[in-house]
Amino acid sequence: MGRSVLELWLLWSVVMRVMIALPIAYSASSTSSQEALLVSRIAFGSCANQSAPQPIWNAIIDFDPQIFIWLGDNIYGDVRHPFKLFGKERTIGPWKNVPRFIPSSEQEMQSRYKKTKTNPGYSRLLEKTKVIGTWDDHDYGLNDAGKEFNGKITSQRLLLDFLDEPQDSPRRKQAGVYTSYTFGPVGRQIKVILLDTRYHRDPLFSDGSILGSSQWTWLESELKGPASALTIIGSSIQVISNLSAITGPIFYLECWGRFPKERERLFKLIADSKRDGVFFISGDVHFGEITRYDCATGYPLFDITASGITQAVEKAVPPPLNFIVRFVAWLAPTTMRVMGQHCRHKSCTYGDWTFSRPAKFWSN
Ligand SMILES: *[C@@H]1O[C@H](CO)[C@@H](O)[C@H](O)[C@H]1NC(C)=O
Ligand SMILES: *[C@@H]1O[C@H](CO)[C@@H](O)[C@H](O)[C@H]1NC(C)=O
């Protein structure tokens, strides 16, 4: 694994706005005696408004993933007040007098999860696919919230209920929803590490911690533990993108780039672990993107963002104006975005539902 494999994969793959699938071809010649099923199709996505139509599940089911990974904003659990510059309830400007987002009750969160869980498309996916996941801010309970949010213990229970986490799972007893899985037979194992970027996160602009000390200790033992052919690190927020460094004072997205010390620590841990075949997957931003960083380890690190099961930047404006959003995205000078020959529009936004084409991950 490593450079050539990831680059080959990249060459063949295209970002889609709503989700990305990772196809891994079976190796016909292998006569593995392992019981564990070779995992060849993983799909992932994020940002799903439970009250909006979710037709994307049909496209995901057609792809027949063996595993689906939720990367957060699995529901929009908080209450959003409309933008209001004037009037009694002003939500923006220095003169704002009510918060734009407030948490909702446990019952309300529960009923929103139920809406998604009973969505006909998602229910159908659940029948055949192992679904795992982590959270981002809106299913954690509040826009941009971190460790200070006092609904987090309840929110953790609600997410784990939604994901059908067994009642006796250690994940229900720890502080935060981070966890890991290993799929596939020995020699062709895929390790999936899901981070919690909320429960322990220091305030924005603090350059403090995202993961908190207990999660760091755990992550270190995960990365330094038994080798796997591939290691996928799922983070709700983008790890590699530097977009906010450029759009800075005008607008910020949440990302690891806003906690530079924490991001350095992550890159250094991956390098020190000598682990091969590590890459990131992320969500949150309402567009799809591939970013790449060459200077962390002996091989390039990729971050593949799939965001927008229902939320998409292009949809924020009426259809005739979609091209403007695409144009702005294309202009935005994020230094770490991959501009592959095979990326349509050479831009981060992706208009059509598209699946990556098969690539040969396992050479023999
Ligand atoms: C979710 O969808 C509903 C129905 O279309 C809409 O009213 C609501 O504003 C949406 N919420 C978010 C967070 O996009
Ligand atoms: C990314 O942004 C950080 C500052 O947040 C900067 O130090 C670093 O050089 C940037 N990297 C690139 C490649 O632009």
UniProtKB/TrEMBL annotation:
<protein>
    <recommendedName>
        <fullName>PhoD-like phosphatase metallophosphatase domain-containing protein</fullName>
    </recommendedName>
</protein>
<keyword id="KW-0732">Signal</keyword>
<feature type="domain" description="PhoD-like phosphatase metallophosphatase">
    <location>
        <begin position="43"/>
        <end position="295"/>
    </location>
</feature>
<feature type="signal peptide">
    <location>
        <begin position="1"/>
        <end position="21"/>
    </location>
</feature>
<dbReference type="Pfam" id="PF09423">
    <property type="entry name" value="PhoD"/>
</dbReference>
<dbReference type="InterPro" id="IPR038607">
    <property type="entry name" value="PhoD-like_sf"/>
</dbReference>
<dbReference type="InterPro" id="IPR018946">
    <property type="entry name" value="PhoD-like_MPP"/>
</dbReference>
<dbReference type="InterPro" id="IPR029052">
    <property type="entry name" value="Metallo-depent_PP-like"/>
</dbReference>
